[in-house]
Amino acid sequence: MTTAENILSTLLKDHGYSITSQRLLVFNLLIGQEPMTMHELIDRTNGKIDRASIYRIIGLFDQIGITQRLNIGWKYKIELTDKFAEHHHHLTCLNCHKVIPINKNELEDFIAQLATVQGFTPIDHQVEIQGYCQNCSKKVTKAKLLN
Ligand SMILES: [Zn+2]
Ligand SMILES: [Zn+2]
Could you tell me the distance, in angstroms and rounded to a whole number, from the CA of residue 87 to the centre of ligand 1? Predict the structure, then answer.
């Protein structure tokens, strides 16, 4: 087992679940990947697991902190939590739905500083930026100019 699979196995065990071949398969489809939609995830299982089981597995993963959801408008994408990937944030394009990871120490320091100034001990935070990617920005500006 890889280190990541060991963490997965421990997390499952801690919550009274065992590592099954289906859970492991879903996990391995998510690791090291960009956030993906349920649809994309289902596609990548190549029919090896039925839809209902995939939803159940992700539901469990969400619940015990293996995966997290990124809300993009009324949709969402799934990714592994910081336990399996370096802590990061995202820029999400509202037009093409591209998700760009961002990882800046300055941002982390600033967030910690904002909290500690208030005498607050920060444990976790979520910062998501939504807008238009470089490509789509051009299109959006053009469309606005034409109107
Ligand atoms: Zn875009
Ligand atoms: Zn952060």
Answer: 23
